[in-house]
């Protein structure tokens, strides 16, 4: 086994899981909703990106040719479509699972159930409309390999890692500097206090759901460089994102990042060890998470356990 | 003696009410070996008819008995596919009832239900197939396996809260699935164990008698699960946990070890789930890793969510709906799951606690609407409405208010500008018939808020209008600041005030 291949693979996985986990974690800490429809957002955005790419392919080929510009335009279009569709789906989740019941009794459990139902329905609709056949997205980072001494990485891996780092940086900066970000952070620290100082729950929740949806959409486009788009392709990222968000401690963004890195490397290593192999990846992940949770019941970060219960 | 027919007023005019002899002592039979009564009877004396009345305060046992009886009686007449669906319904209901015990009564958000069922099934099936354990002992083996796994899973349940524990148990199910699929001896059959001995004789398999026997077995399992639920949830353990649900600190202060009680409930349910697992393996004659899958778990979760978390009737109703859609309309294809999702969505958006809580929610809503409407009416008329009438103990009051209302209506019709003009010109008499009637009504008014004329000390002909407080010792209050210098003018001012009050009443 090549240690550097494993390293790059681990970073790649960590990047994509991180996008999912931070979405789930943000949503929980700001509006107290566990979004089980995150996987559906993932799948829908993947399909939207595929559809758009299919539609625009001849146009772009005619306009820019097959060179670097064409690939860049294609990348722009797929990424934008994925993110936009994710944000739209996030708005749908907001309209169905947050708006009607956010001030009613049992909101956390009921929103979880509603998002679960949305997930079930979306997967079935996709299966019904597009069929179980897998689609593959255009290679937006091109195909090929980059060799840097002993390090060698495929373009899509590098692209995913760099793009994720950039997106996460942007999101975190936006949360830190913008007015809306301030409101969201206030909501995370003390929901009641935020409401008392004039922050509207409804108008804060909408950008959060749309933002997390867009993150899931970007994750879909980035992950689809390695795997295919299919109706059930959202299930695994959802479970991974959820477990990492919980492992990092729900509501803690640094915890989620740490969890994503740990799990990403763990999976890469377990997958690369000869006598364990790819079949034991999930097994190893869950054994690890169970051990961590028994040692640290609120996860690695676990900072908001008192505020949100 | 002839029965007098009364108007049917009140909330439930059609409720069945027994009329036992007034001097007959109350006999209530108890469940054998317990101190519980079979039914919850309520007795009361009807103050109007002076009769003893007795009614069933809790009719749920009746509905349960009727529903289960209908299922048992209908089973022999069902077609073969429907009979299988009924049997599957019974098995899943039993699982869900025990799961409800874990989630509702113990308050542990465990998703390892199907994992425990699967482990019970695998252990008992393996013992049967590889070691030749006879089928009656499989139930014991399954129960023991469930108990051991339950004990293992219960350890972290007090340390972790809600979602973290749910994740842990979900991970446990996944580990079970991978573990079983990787087992070397099961490799050729893709992780499943086949040819498990069964309580159904092998030559009856998939025949009508075999299906009937299978249904009977599943029905017995359901009854046992319901009995377990009843015994655990509404006896000592359930009562302890009820206290803990309302206030954990209080429960601890009164010496209730609720963590221990939760563990006990979890262990009991796990053992029961293990037994159901053994039954599951026998019913199908095989067991496959499919039982650990996430999809199956989600479907099961949909069942208890549609029914309502934490109630046995909810678990059974939800299971009936989902099983009927999922297995009954196989020709619909993927729309089945869409339908289940749509029901789930609708139920969760509109109901606070599933279908089982719908009745209570509806009653609450109706009560609110009724009280709103009542407030509106009382504000307007002053006459007592039927719903309000049953809440007034002194029935004289109702007739008094009705009389007053009619009288006021009659007098209002008499008030005309001519009448007022007549009073202005001649406040002290002689009056016409209409004016006498109006004035007589005013004179009979209650002392509280009755108007009076008070002579002012500064001048002999200076009057102000006051209103009596109605309580002894409390001084009258001044109605307005205006001073009248003519007594007749003051009389007329009082008259106008009263007319005004009458028209507004």
From TrEMBL, chain A:
Protein's name according to its UniProt entry: Branched-chain amino acid ABC transporter permease
Membrane topology: Multi-pass membrane protein
UniProt GO cellular component terms: plasma membrane
Gene Ontology MF term list: transmembrane transporter activity
Compartment(s) of residence: Cell membrane
TM segment ranges: 6-28, 35-53, 73-99, 111-131, 158-178, 199-223, 243-268, 280-299
BP GO terms, sorted: amino acid transport
Database matches in Pfam families: BPD_transp_2
Keyword Transmembrane: yes
Taxonomy, superkingdom: Bacteria
Similarity remark: Belongs to the binding-protein-dependent transport system permease family. LivHM subfamily.
Listed CDD domains: TM_PBP1_LivH_like (cd06582)
Principal subcellular localization: membrane
Species for this entry: Tabrizicola oligotrophica
TrEMBL record, chain B:
InterPro entries xref list: ABC_transp_permease, DMF_alpha_dom, LivM-like
GO MF, one annotated term: branched-chain amino acid transmembrane transporter activity
Membrane association type: Multi-pass membrane protein
Assigned keywords, A-Z: Cell membrane, Membrane, Transmembrane, Transmembrane helix
N,N-dimethylformamidase alpha subunit domain span: 399-503
TM stretches of this protein: 62-79, 85-104, 111-131, 137-155, 162-180, 211-232, 265-285, 297-325, 337-358
Protein name: Branched-chain amino acid ABC transporter permease
Organism encoding this protein: Tabrizicola oligotrophica
